[in-house]
Design brief:
Number of strands: 2
Oligomer: single chain
Distance between the termini: 20 Å
Helix content: over 70%
Largest sheet: 2 strands, antiparallel
Shape: globular
Order of helices and strands: HHHHHHHEHHHHHEHHH
Strand order of the largest sheet: 1-2
Length: 342
């Protein structure tokens, strides 16, 4: 992957970095709109307001995960554990909330009050984030290796708790409320609203706060950041806890939506979140990218997937289309930015 050039003054927010990121985000948005129009030609009934809305609402989980993944990529680190955390937090929420007097092992839980089950499940997710930070920051293990390991660890624990199946019985009546609650008398569900709020907060942090600027600085030039007195260890710890917390919330909401804890839930979500960030122009080497770009990258992936489904293509062809879209988008971004900075 070719890293995007980042000038030192841009990292501090003088305008060059922001200009380049706005340019890339606009380019990604244009690609998303173009792909949508092309898909509308080949897929019957694709060009409809409901389709546009569904592209966002049906992908709220991946977009939410993409926020944490984007911040970590900008800092020069990976988080491939989010899919496993989604599964683990959902399974934990169900296990903690299930009544303690079930008829069999899969219907018997710890009997916690629902609010306490949610808190404990989030605690499990944050524990994975803390473990990621410990090995990446304290022991300097490459983040891609650490987070692959914790992804498998989290999913393995979920499989042990569910015995390779799922837990979906003996739950309190309120368990399914959060994941299916609609707001303001519309069909928009609470998880979608939380995704929008998360995006807005992330954009504000990225553009308007010292924390956001330090994230870019650490990713663009870690040596300079260290010599400038920035506490890289603490900053990365916060980022890993943020990413794990988001993944935990996503897992709990999905478990509530389907009223079940499923050990295979969230499979490949970590790669979808990574792909959406890369499609959105986030540099894999760190120091460049934006949450807005990630959002439009997610729309590109959603358009390609939805169009492939509408054309009744086999899953094999859908994977090929995704790969082609990712390749073309990244090559186009790299070429366009190189020409712009000549």
């Amino acid at each position: 992957m070719t890293a995007y050039p980042v000038k030192a003054e841009g990292v501090l927010g003088s305008g060059h970095r922001m200009g380049d990121e706005t340019f890339i985000a606009s380019l990604v948005a244009c690609v998303a709109v173009g792909l949508f129009l092309i898909a509308s030609v080949f897929v019957p009934n694709f060009f409809q307001p409901l389709t546009m809305l569904n592209l966002v609402t049906n992908n709220w989980a991946v977009i939410s995960l993409g926020v944490g993944v984007t911040f970590l990529l900008v800092s020069g680190n990976f988080d491939l554990s989010v899919g496993g955390v989604v599964a683990l937090s959902g399974v934990l929420a169900v296990w903690f909330a299930q009544s303690a007097d079930g008829n069999n092992a899969l219907s018997t839980g710890l009997g916690f009050p629902y609010w306490l089950a949610i808190v404990c499940a989030l605690g499990g997710a944050l524990a994975v984030g803390a473990l990621n930070a410990l090995f990446v920051v304290r022991f300097s293990v490459p983040s891609i290796i650490v987070t692959l390991g914790t992804m498998m660890l989290a999913r393995g624990i979920a499989q042990v708790i569910t015995q390779g199946s799922q837990r979906n019985t003996n739950l309190p009546p309120e368990f399914g409320i959060l994941g299916n609650l609609t707001v303001f008398g519309t069909s928009v569900r609470l998880p979608v609203v939380l995704m929008v709020v998360l995006l807005l907060v992330a954009i504000f942090i990225e553009k308007k706060t010292v924390f956001g600027r330090l994230t870019y600085w650490i990713g663009a030039n870690p040596v300079t950041a260290r010599l400038s007195g920035i506490d890289r260890a603490k900053h990365l710890t916060y980022l890993y806890l943020l990413s794990a917390g988001i993944a935990g919330a996503v897992g709990i909401l999905l478990a509530s939506e389907f009223r079940s804890g499923y050990s295979n839930r969230g499979t490949l979500m970590e790669f979808d979140a990574l792909v959406t960030a890369l499609l959105g122009g986030v540099a894999i080497a760190g120091g460049f990218g934006s949450v807005i770009g990630m959002f439009f990258g997610a729309l590109i992936l959603a358009v390609v997937t939805t169009a492939a489904t509408g054309m009744v293509l086999s899953p094999d062809w859908q994977f090929i289309l995704k790969a082609v879209a990712v390749f073309l988008a990244i090559v186009t971004q790299t070429w366009a930015l190189a020409r712009r900075n000549r």
